[in-house]
Amino acid sequence: MTIETEQISFGYGTRPAVRNISMTLKPGIFYGILGPNGCGKTTLVDLLIRHRTPDTGTIFYRGIPLERYSRKQIAREMALVPQHYAISFPFTSREIVLMGRHPHLGRLDFPSKMDHYLVDAVMEQTETREFENRLISELSGGERQRVIFARALVQDTPVLILDEATSNLDISHAISLFNLAFERVSDRGKTVIAVMQDINLAALFCQYLILMKNGQAVYQGHCDEVLTETSIQSIFEVKSSSNTWEKFLLKKSEIAVPIAVGIK
Amino acid sequence: MRRITCSTGLQLLLLSLLLTMLVAVSSGLGYIRIGFFDVIRIVLSKLPGMESLTDGVSSLFPVVITTVRMPRILTSACVGAGLALSGVVFQGILLNPLADPYTLGVSSGAAVGASLALWLHFGIWGMWSIPIFAFAGSGLTLVVVMYLASSDTELSSSSLILSGIIVSSILSAGVSFIKYMADEQVGVIIFWLMGSFGSKTWGDVWLTLSSLILGLGVCLFFSGELNVMSLGSRSAASLGVDTRKVRMILLITASLVSAVCVSVSGIIGFVGLLVPHIMRTLSGPDNRRLIPVSVLAGACLMLGADTITRAVLPHEIPIGVLTALIGGPFFCYIYRRRQVSGFHDN
Question: B98, B225, B227, B238: which to substitute to probe chain A, counting the most A Cβ within 10 Å?
Answer without folding.
Answer: B238
